[in-house]
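Below sits the subject:

***
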Amino acid sequence: MEQLLTIEKVLNNNVVIARHDAYKEVVLIGNGLGFNRKKGDVISFDHADKTFLLKDEAEKEQYVNLIPHIDENLIAFINDQLLYIEEQMGTELNEHIHVALTDHLSFAIKRIQQNMQFSNSFLFEIESLYPKEYQVAKGVVKEFERQLGIVFPEGEIGFIALHIHSAVTDKSLRDINRDHELISRLTELIEDGLKVDLSNDNVNYHRLIQHLHRAIDRIHQGESLGDENKLQELLKAEYPVCYNLAWKLIKVMQNQLKKPVDEAEVLYLTIHLQRLTHTN
């Protein structure tokens, strides 16, 4: 049975906001969907290429204010990319990506047009931690160049990958960036404490980044690694420098995240640190 909605606002020729009895306000996107339509007109879900809900009032207001200032062809293109992202990731995306990524990409294009330079200091970490999101983001950047002639700097792949990861995991970009900043701080402490230079092509550095990320996730979720008293005594005796540095890092994580950290994390971190000293 065809489901009908009543148009509340036409944002442009391709985007309208409509009201549904069950879903309340729904955003509908489709080529020419809003052409010659006005408030009060009846429309069907079948007319739209994509529909999504904006339950958050602040996001809805941001989207309503954003769309009229973006070229309609760009809106349609970004919508195609969102469908591509969803298809490649094999899962539904949190609806906030429609607002966040549209806003980000439109601003990124303006930066390019104004020759504004920007970089992404977490690019290697993002590629290491979210390889699938990174590859999908690379595909999006390639389509911008192929279809629109817009050439993004490499760092943009990382930013888009973060938006994808946020939409897949339902984590806020603020929380994701906070964890990345913590990992960056921990890395600096490791370089200083072990007197090593952690290069991106070091496989043990790659493993360390992933381990720190998983450790932070475990802390957020309150997971325990179990009791390893015998191993603790061995590592403390064999690798005192790495063991003490591991405790320092744990204290930094605990203070930054405002959550208790399982003491067993020290043991696995000590092993990763020892690998780094062995490699260097």
